[in-house]
Design brief:
- The protein has 255 residues and is an alpha/beta fold.
- The chain has a single domain, classed as Beta-carbonic Anhydrase, Chain A.
- 42% of the residues lie in helices and 11% in strands.
- It has a five-stranded mixed β-sheet with strand order 2-1-3-4-5.
- A hairpin with a 6-residue loop joins strand 4 and strand 5.
- Helix 1 crosses helix 3 and helix 9 packs across helix 10.
- The longest helix is centred in the last third of the chain and has 18 residues.
- The structure holds zinc ion.
- The site of zinc ion (ZN) has 7 residues, from helix 7.
Length: 255
């Protein structure tokens, strides 16, 4: 896999930074509850400790760093076209029918071109996905994330925005309008408006700046969300990172 393709100028994790995270994770006990080695947990997460109901106490350990490593590697496979389609066998289906221990939570846009399971080359039971147009976080979204953290043992949250997001574009296009958005769209667009306002006048592409700003704000919101997320972030047991998916290249830029 060509991880160097994930390097982006200006923002995003660098290859060197990613490597240092990955290397430190191999001997790291952060957030661990079980006994697997890092290598085992990367390849066989969810294969042990299958208590009914999937409570976190019995979940195999995947640190935030290991989870991030898996996502980066999966996206590299997707970008290169060398997909492995992991965890999509009948055996995997039967395994996760009993309990689930997704290694990451992804809050992504509903856009049909950005399915997290595909762009990270994952399978059944791997990702706990919450999707809403514009990838914003209301109480129901945060409650869903809290469930995956507390009961399923996930230690990484990725807020995934994307290039040319229609929800953000609609917010940009109506920024100066006093007319209410039609139907129920206001509920989607209003949470994005502060991000659009924050980047007005900033150099560069307004829509893309707003996409990035919206992701950064939702990441900040989740990190400060009490009591579940903020407490775990402070304790180093949970990481919340932002991502931008490039529709043209398939690359997810993480930071
Ligand atoms: Zn979108």
């Amino acid at each position: 896999m060509n991880l160097s393709r994930l390097i982006h100028t200006g923002s995003g994790i660098s290859f060197a930074m990613f490597l240092s995270i990955a290397i430190s994770a191999t001997g790291c006990a952060t957030g661990t509850r079980g006994h697997e080695t890092a290598t085992d947990s990367v390849h066989h997460h969810g294969a042990t400790g299958a208590a009914a109901g999937g409570h976190g106490h019995d979940a195999p350990s995947v640190s935030p760093e290991q989870a991030l490593q898996k996502l980066v590697a999966g996206n590299a496979r997707y970008v290169s076209g060398r997909l492995e389609h992991p965890d999509q066998t009948v055996a995997r289906r039967e395994e996760v029918a009993k309990s689930q221990h997704p290694f990451a939570i992804v809050l992504s846009c509903s856009d049909s071109r950005v399915p997290p399971e595909i762009v990270f080359d994952t399978g059944l039971g791997d990702l706990f996905v919450v999707r809403i147009a514009g990838n914003t976080a209301d109480d129901a979204v945060i409650g869903s994330i809290e469930y995956a953290i507390e009961h399923l043992g996930a230690t990484l949250v990725v807020v995934l925005g994307h290039e040319r997001c229609g929800a953000v574009k609609a917010t940009v296009d109506t920024a100066s309008s006093t007319a209410p958005a039609p139907g129920h769209l206001a509920a989607l667009l209003d949470p994005i408006r502060p991000a659009v306002k924050a980047v007005e006048g900033r150099s560069g592409d307004l829509l893309d700046n707003a996409v990035r700003e919206n992701v950064a704000r939702v990441v900040g919101q989740l990190k400060q969300s009490k009591p579940v997320l903020a407490e775990r972030v402070a304790a180093g047991k949970l990481q919340v990172v932002g991502g931008r998916y490039d529709l043209d290249t398939g690359i997810v830029e993480l930071k």
